[in-house]
Request: fold
Amino acid sequence: MAYVIAEPCIGTKDTACVDACPVDCIHPKKDEAAYETSELLYIDPVECIDCGACVPVCPVSAIFALDDLPEKWAHFAEINAKYFNR
Ligand code: SF4
Reply:
């Protein structure tokens, strides 16, 4: 299982989650070229250790454990994974 960033991140890209993540698995970061063009931020499903630290710091409640991902946003699991070619 991994955590997933869903639709509320689109147009927000706050990056508080990036700072909270202990394993640096949320990208693109502000200093990465892809940050400007990316619609949202993504969690690497292989690197994520399921700690949940990113969830409470997100100002738009965009991050969910895979098991808690609302059905309407289920496709975001694949969207996150694809960014990392997973
Ligand atoms: Fe990073 Fe933990 Fe969030 Fe996974 S659950 S993205 S390891 S902060």
Q: What stands out?
A: Residues 1 and 22 are 17 Å apart (CA to CA).
